[in-house]
Write a structure and sequence with these properties.
The chain is α+β, with helices and mostly antiparallel strands and about 220 residues long. Helix content is about 25%, strand content about 25%. It contains 6 helices and 13 strands. Strands 4-1-8-7-11-10-9-13 form an 8-stranded mixed beta sheet. The chain has a 3-stranded antiparallel beta sheet with strand order 6-5-12, with no helix packed on it. Strands 2-3 form a two-stranded antiparallel ribbon. A hairpin with a 3-residue loop joins strand 2 and strand 3. The longest helix has 16 residues. It is globular and about 45 Å long.
């Protein structure tokens, strides 16, 4: 987020797991189809009334809030010639002026009364393709790095649809979400890049674990 630009919440959404039907009548439990919200308490575990179906890959204190850039909606609309619904990617907050290239792992933001910190880039899953029926959207999200990102909650508080969102503190390491995505998805053998990402103390424990494991394999020659 650049200092001259003001972030704005364009959409605020929450939702609980429900059955979703996708190609050829198949069904799955998912909370990706979130609905617009007005006033919600944000706790350390996420927004009240929000949830996930796959507890292994989603949710938890380090993935309590999902943010996606509003600017990407125009990009995907142009790429796929479709009009996306609000919260199309299952995000809680759709925001302007908070692109992956500008937001860093460890950055701290105030949103409404709450304080949140970026922990990792989002790792998109095939639920997005199943919901939107826009294959190969998932592959394109990985290719571009336009994945959105996840946050932990440092201070709980009320968030409203018209709440302001502002940068409180930048991470001193300045490792952007986009850079971390690039290392993770496209440069898995970049030792220096992995080390740089791991230098961010605030990175999600899961990312630290798998990147450390990857680094150990690379440096041990196994």
């Amino acid at each position: 987020m650049r200092s001259s630009e003001k972030a704005v919440i364009k959409n605020f959404a929450i939702g609980l797991p429900e059955k979703m039907t996708y190609e050829n009548g198949k069904e799955m439990e998912t909370a990706i189809r979130k609905q617009q919200a007005q006033t919600v308490l944000l706790t350390k575990d996420g927004f009240q009334g929000d949830g996930v179906a796959d507890l292994k890959h989603h949710g938890g204190p380090e993935r309590a809030v999902c943010i996606y850039s509003y600017e990407h909606y125009a990009y995907w609309k142009n790429q796929f010639k479709v009009q996306l619904p609000p919260a199309a990617f299952g995000e809680n907050l759709t925001v302007t002026n908070m692109l992956e290239r500008d937001v860093c792992i460890g950055d701290i933001f105030q949103v409404g009364e709450a304080i949140i910190q970026v922990t990792q880039g989002r790792v998109p899953c095939n639920t997005i393709d199943r919901r939107l029926d826009m294959k190969p959207l998932l592959k394109e999200m990985v290719k571009t790095g336009f994945t959105g990102y996840l946050c932990r909650v440092l201070e709980e508080g009320i968030v409203r649809a018209d709440s302001s969102i502002r940068l409180v503190a930048k991470s001193p390491q300045q490792v952007s979400v986009l850079y971390a995505n690039e290392i993770n998805f496209h440069r898995p053998r970049d030792i220096n890049g992995i080390v740089k990402v791991l230098e961010v103390e605030e990175i999600a424990a899961e990312w630290r674990q798998f990147l450390t494991k990857r680094l150990t394999k690379l440096t041990s020659g196994s």
